[in-house]
From TrEMBL:
Gene: rpe
Name of the protein in its database record: Ribulose-phosphate 3-epimerase
NCBIfam families named among the record's database cross-references: PRK05581.1-4 (NF004076), rpe (TIGR01163)
Catalytic activity: D-ribulose 5-phosphate = D-xylulose 5-phosphate
Function noted in UniProt: Catalyzes the reversible epimerization of D-ribulose 5-phosphate to D-xylulose 5-phosphate.
Entry's family note: Belongs to the ribulose-phosphate 3-epimerase family.
Alphabetized Gene3D superfamilies for the sequence: Aldolase class I (3.20.20.70)
Pfam families the UniProt entry points to: Ribul_P_3_epim (PF00834)
Originating organism: Agromyces fucosus
Cofactor dependency: a divalent metal cation; Fe(2+); Co(2+); Mn(2+)
Enzyme class: isomerase
Amino acid sequence: MTTRINPSILAADFANLEHELGRIASADLVHVDVMDNHFVPNLTFGPQMVGRLQEVSPIPLDVHLMISDVDRWAPGYAELGAFSVTFHAEATDEPVALARRLREIGARAGIALKPGTDVEPYLELLPEFDQVLVMTVEPGFGGQSFMAETMPKLERLSRVVRETDLDVWLQVDGGISLDTIGIAADAGADTFVAGSAVFGADVPAERIIALRDAAIA
Ligand code: DX5
Ligand code: ZN
């Protein structure tokens, strides 16, 4: 199984993002947290900023939309060239139509589940998606503690993906560190978002490798 480590630039120095991208050369994808101060109580950046990141980043972008009205905004992120675009289940009434639109444009489509969001209604939609993001903290802020109570949801997803032989990546986001990554890996995650654990390290590129090793161990 491939193990992917996607550093979240939410924990990077916003005044030096191009330089920060240079410190994570060992990453698989760059996780970009878009927040609108409506879906979550925090505000980050929008399409113009992400478009510029797309131009300068040597590593493909994994865009995590923590915004409302994704039917309106998500396709734009796919159009600017993001590798994957993930929206929250609650942010649209038409998740399948939106996923199809994202795939048509050429991005991988992802659906994100908050800690309190039940996975069962979304299991039958899995063929429409390329990845599921299981939030392991409440979305909105970096540096929070990993919520182990979300692991049964990941185990359930992992079982269904294996049984149905689907190619759907299972991503975890929030509180992933050298101490917690093994728990999420055991529960079936293959893609790990880490903000503070990567950018809080003296040498982020080495921390990424250590995280990958810890996930496999
Ligand atoms: C939280 C974001 C995460 C965040 C993770 O809402 O979706 O991507 O950057 O940060 P850490 O790894 O510090 O918990
Ligand atoms: Zn995120």
